[in-house]
């Protein structure tokens, strides 16, 4: 419990809290050993460690509790219609009737609207139907509420898209914005009832409204690359609140933003195919949009078709020849997913630091959207004592850019940060090659061969290792004799060959390193290396196989400690031969390198004691180690090591590089789709005018 008190005490600095997390994690590792080798065990492990710190991001349901039921009628009042709707009621001698019999009056307005759909009557019918639906929902009349919400949606849709009303529609009238809000609110109200009651099933047809002369069928479909059966449930974005992210991104238009939660697939089903690259219980943004089709020869009923759109694939829908922007929310669904204790960065970073074999199901490449052969992959690689969650601020800001969202897909790489970085780099090479064989076995995608790697801290070294040619240089660290003269188990020799001999990944076009110790770090000193060796657990590969190889070939080997370097801390020391050889290795000719480093030494309190003690750098990596030759651009950020990649300046620089990459490929400014708003008849944009004049 002392660990919990230390970590939860707000008077302690974040470094003390991190230390408490590591101590608690170390205790659990010592007690449980390597039993945490599956997702369920890892999740329980995560919940325990999560008790010691505040989560990076948190999403909680809004407190909307209110009593619903028949007794609510005693004090519930209907909302007051807008002035414009009250005017319509007076014009039709319905204002007094509405006060005494609102439900009957709404039915009369709806009937009148079907017979004589004037612009003002359609608006009044949509608004009054929504007000009545809200009242029915409060008193517990769910079926009636759904019917009224649907009627409101249909009349709002009629107001916006009926060709007979074009001459009367005025996009500059506040009534226009109000009808858009009515459409969105009514659709949301309907979904709020249907989702919890399990009546929200895509690819199903429901008969919701039926009268003597008016029948409505309601059906749902999912658009895009996701499949219907992949989803477990849908939540309304508006039902949750978020904290932990300063920037929240939303686009405005028609539709209801949703959180779509994928069905959790058993581990046994993830062996092959794309499923192995989707994280468990992934949540992603969706937008629900309803289209109303009148009766035709094939249908005697109105058809309301609700489609769920992936905003990462489309930002608008075409209705009656008009491009209608969708209302979307990108940030909250992402935060909803990352609020899982298993994905807390403190939990993941502590677990993967202390034991390379804990929950090894978590390691590897992750996608958070379906693979698109037309989009360029951006692979984000976290650093030492970290996890993919650390990229949340940058990823959130980058994906908000429409051009980047359209042209790029983001992947994340997770690895055990306690092991030497070259072991992880070898595994990353293997994982990238395996993914390429899975998603593009015929090698027909040009986009995947323009891949961008973005690595923070030690992740930058892993990324660089994907774009250099080993030649014989790395092997010569270990031996002056040819590799073919070595003896040992065939499988063991293959592992060693992959570790010391490699070529640049032909899919990588750019590498962005952030706060990386290109020449090692002075914090990998004798004390920290000793602590690391006591706390971190060796990968099984180093413990078993390499010791046999060393024994059998000892007379031909030198610098044997390269094979037995126990931890990543040792591997990052300035005297590391791997670090030194990386600086001399030949880089791939086609790869363009960029570098971002931190220097917050000017704000150090040490300058008040002895300015000579100050070493320019980010507190972990000195500037002289963070800078590197042969880069196309290099930017300095005034930030400490752990937050350099979160700093707005670093995010702006990565955005600039990604857009520049598109420009170099001739892809910048490709048609994003004309987001032509629903406008009054006769209104023409300059582009329309040019076309007309021709």
Description:
There is one protein chain. This protein is α/β, with parallel strands linked by helices and 694 residues long. The protein has two domains: 70-330, no CATH class; 363-664, Alpha/Beta hydrolase fold, catalytic domain (Rossmann fold). The protein has 25 helices and 21 strands. The strands form six sheets. Strands 13-15-14-16-18-20-21 form a seven-stranded mixed beta sheet, sandwiched between helices. The protein starts with a helix and ends with a helix. The relative contact order is 0.09.
Helix content: 25-40%
- The level 1 CATH classification of the largest domain is Alpha Beta
Work out the count of structural domains: 2
Question: Looking at CATH, which topology of the largest domain would you report?
Answer: Rossmann fold
According to DSSP, the number of beta strands is: 21
Going by helix content, strand content and strand pairing, the class is alpha/beta
């Amino acid at each position: 419990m002392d660990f919990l008190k230390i970590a939860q005490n707000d008077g302690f600095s974040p470094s003390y809290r991190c230390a408490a997390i590591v101590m608690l994690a170390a205790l659990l590792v010592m007690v449980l050993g390597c039993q945490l080798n599956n997702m369920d065990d890892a999740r329980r492990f995560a919940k325990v460690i999560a008790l010691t710190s505040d989560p990076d991001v948190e999403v909680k349901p809004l407190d909307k509790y209110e009593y619903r039921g028949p007794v609510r009628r005693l004090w519930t009042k209907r909302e007051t219609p807008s002035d414009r709707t009250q005017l319509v009621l007076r014009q039709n001698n319905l204002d007094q009737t509405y006060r005494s019999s609102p439900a009957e009056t709404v039915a009369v307005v709806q009937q009148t609207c079907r017979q004589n759909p004037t612009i003002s009557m359609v608006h009044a019918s949509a608004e009054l139907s929504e007000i009545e639906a809200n009242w029915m929902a409060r008193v517990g009349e769910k079926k009636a509420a759904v019917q009224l919400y649907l009627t409101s949606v249909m009349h709002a849709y009629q107001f916006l898209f009926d060709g007979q009303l074009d001459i009367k529609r005025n996009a500059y009238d506040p009534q226009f914005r109000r009808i858009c809000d009515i459409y969105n609110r009514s659709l949301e109200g309907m979904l709020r009832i249907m989702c919890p009651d399990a009546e929200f099933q895509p690819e199903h047809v429901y008969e919701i409204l039926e009268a003597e002369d008016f029948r409505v069928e309601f059906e749902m479909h999912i658009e895009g690359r996701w499949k219907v059966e992949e989803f477990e449930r849908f939540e309304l974005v508006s039902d949750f609140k978020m904290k932990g992210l300063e920037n929240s991104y939303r686009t405005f238009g028609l539709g209801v933003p949703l959180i779509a939660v994928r069905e959790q697939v058993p581990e046994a089903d993830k062996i092959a195919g794309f499923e192995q690259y989707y994280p468990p219980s992934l949540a992603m943004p969706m937008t629900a949009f309803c289209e109303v089709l009148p009766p035709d020869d094939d249908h005697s009923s109105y058809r309301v078709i609700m489609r769920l759109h992936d905003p990462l694939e489309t930002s608008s829908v075409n209705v009656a020849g008009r491009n209608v922007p969708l209302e979307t929310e990108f940030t909250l669904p992402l935060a909803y997913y990352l609020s899982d204790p298993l994905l807390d960065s403190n939990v993941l970073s502590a677990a993967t630091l202390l034991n390379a074999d804990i929950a090894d199901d978590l390691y590897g490449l992750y996608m958070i959207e379906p693979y698109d052969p037309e989009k360029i992959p951006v692979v984000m690689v976290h650093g030492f004592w970290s996890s993919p969650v650390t990229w949340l601020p940058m990823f959130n800001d980058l994906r908000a850019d429409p051009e980047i969202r359209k042209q790029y897909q983001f992947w994340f790489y997770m690895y055990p940060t306690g092991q030497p970085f070259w072991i992880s780099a070898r595994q990353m090479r293997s994982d990238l090659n395996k993914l390429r064989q899975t998603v593009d076995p015929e090698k027909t995608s040009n986009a995947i061969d323009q891949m961008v790697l973005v690595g923070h801290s030690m992740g930058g070294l892993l990324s660089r290792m994907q774009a250099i040619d080993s030649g014989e240089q790395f092997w010569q660290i270990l031996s002056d004799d040819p590799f073919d003269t070595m003896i040992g188990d065939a499988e063991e020799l293959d592992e060693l060959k992959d570790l010391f001999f490699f070529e640049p990944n032909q899919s990588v076009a750019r590498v962005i390193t952030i706060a990386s110790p290109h020449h090692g770090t002075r914090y990998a000193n004798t004390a920290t290396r000793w602590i690391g060796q006591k706390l971190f657990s060796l990968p099984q590969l180093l413990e078993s196989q390499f010791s046999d190889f060393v024994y059998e070939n000892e007379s031909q080997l030198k610098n044997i400690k390269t094979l037995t370097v126990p931890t990543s801390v040792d591997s990052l020391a300035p005297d590391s031969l791997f670090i030194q050889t990386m600086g001399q290795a030949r880089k791939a000719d086609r790869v363009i390198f960029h570098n971002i480093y931190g220097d917050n030494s000017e704000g150090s309190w040490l300058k008040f004691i002895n300015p000579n003690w100050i070493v320019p750098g980010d507190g972990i990596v000195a500037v002289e180690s963070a800078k590197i030759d042969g880069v196309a651009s290099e930017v300095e950020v005034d930030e400490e090591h752990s937050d350099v990649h979160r700093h707005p300046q670093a995010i702006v620089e990565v955005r600039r590089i990604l857009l520049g990459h598109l420009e170099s490929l001739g892809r910048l400014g490709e048609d994003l789709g004309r987001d032509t708003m629903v406008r009054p008849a006769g209104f023409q944009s300059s582009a329309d005018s040019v076309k007309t004049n021709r």
